[in-house]
Design brief:
Structural class: alpha+beta
Strand content: 25-35%
Oligomer: single chain
Mean pLDDT: 91
CATH topology of one domain: Pseudouridine synthase
Order of helices and strands: EHHEHEEHEEHEEEEHEEH
CATH class of one domain: Alpha Beta
Shape: globular
C-alpha cells in the first residue's frame, strides 16, 4: 500500500497541507474528496483534512491509478513548494534568485511558469496568476489567484493595503528597539513616500536582526531605507551592504503574509520558514534566527 511518512519539519501541518506539499500534482479538491471518503488514514483511523500531523506519522494512501500517477510526478521532484492552498488561493515559497515573472534572463524558468506547469499537470483549466511580486533576491511566500474572479478579489486586498507583509533582515551595525522608517524613494521617475515599521530581534555591535513590516509598497523599499540610515543589508551589493563568505545571497526574507480570506472571511497567516543558509549565517554571528 502506498504511504507517506511525516518528517520532523512537517509536524503541526494539517493533513491537507501535508498532502498538498507532498503531492503537488494533486488538486486540493481531489485530496479533500479522498479524505471525506475515508480513503486516507493512519493504521488507527481515517483522517480528516483539518487533523494535525505529527513527526513519524505514516499516512496510508489508496492504490488508485490517478493518485499513483500524481505521486510519481512528485517523485521526479516538484520545483514548487506549496505553503497554503484552497479552492481560490495558492501560496508557494519563492527561493532567492528565482524571478516571479518572465523577464530578461528568466524567460524559461520563473515561479509563474513553474506554477502554471504544476496546474497543467493537475489538469486544471482556470487561469492562475501571481497577485504580487517579491524582488529577485528576496525569498518568501508568493500569493497566486485561481481564476479571474479570485485574481480580482485578491488583487483588491493589495490595492487596499489589507495584506500584512512581515520580513526578516540582517543589517550592518546595531539597531535597538523599534520604530518606523519614513522617507521617500524613487518610483517611476518620481520621489514617493515610503514607510517601514521595524523591530530589533537581536543585536550586536556588528549586526542586527530586524523584523520589518511594510506600510507602503515601493520597489526596493526596505533595501533603500536601511541603506539611507547607514544600516544596509548583508549581501546587498547594490546598496553597499557587507558581503561575507558564507552568504551567497541577500539577507532579506518575507516570513509572513497575513490577510482576511475574501472568500471565506477567515483570517489567514501564511508563514515561510527562514532558509537554512540564513539561519546558519545569523547563528555564526551569535544572532539566533528561527524565522
Amino acid at each position: 500500500m502506498p504511504h507517506l511518512t511525516v518528517a520532523t519539519k512537517e509536524k503541526d501541518l494539517t493533513v491537507l497541507e501535508f498532502l498538498c506539499r507532498r503531492i503537488p500534482a494533486a488538486p486540493s479538491a481531489y485530496l479533500r474528496q479522498l479524505l471525506k471518503k475515508g480513503k486516507i488514514r493512519t493504521a488507527a483511523k481515517p483522517l480528516r483534512a483539518e487533523d494535525p500531523v505529527a513527526a513519524e506519522d505514516i499516512l496510508l494512501l489508496p492504490a488508485a491509478g490517478r493518485l499513483l500517477e500524481m505521486l510519481a510526478m512528485g517523485d521526479l521532484g516538484s520545483p514548487v513548494e506549496i505553503l497554503y492552498e484552497s479552492r481560490e488561493i495558492l501560496v508557494v515559497d519563492k527561493s532567492a534568485g528565482l524571478a516571479v515573472h518572465a523577464a530578461a534572463g528568466h524567460e524559461e524558468d520563473n515561479l509563474t511558469r513553474r506554477v502554471e506547469e504544476m496546474a497543467r499537470r493537475r489538469g486544471e483549466k482556470f487561469r492562475i496568476a501571481p497577485i504580487h511580486r517579491l524582488d529577485l533576491e528576496t525569498s518568501g511566500p508568493v500569493l497566486f489567484g485561481k481564476g479571474k474572479k479570485a485574481c480580482g478579489e485578491l488583487g483588491k486586498l493589495f490595492m487596499d493595503q489589507k495584506v500584512e507583509k512581515l520580513y526578516l533582515a540582517l543589517v550592518k551595525g546595531r539597531i535597538d528597539g523599534q520604530g518606523t522608517l519614513v522617507g521617500t524613494v524613487p518610483a517611476k521617475g518620481k520621489e514617493k513616500q515610503a514607510q517601514t515599521a521595524f523591530r530589533s530581534l537581536a543585536a550586536s555591535d556588528a549586526a542586527t536582526l530586524l523584523e520589518l513590516r511594510l506600510l507602503t509598497g515601493r520597489r526596493h523599499q526596505i533595501r533603500r531605507q536601511l541603506a539611507d540610515i547607514g544600516h544596509p543589508l548583508f549581501g546587498d551589493l547594490r546598496y553597499g551592504g557587507p558581503c561575507i563568505p558564507g552568504l551567497s545571497r541577500l539577507f532579506l526574507h518575507c516570513r509572513r503574509l497575513a490577510f482576511i480570506d475574501p472568500f471565506s472571511a477567515a483570517p489567514l497567516a501564511i508563514d515561510s520558514p527562514l532558509p537554512r543558509q540564513l539561519v546558519d549565517f545569523a547563528a555564526a554571528l551569535n544572532l539566533p534566527a528561527t524565522g
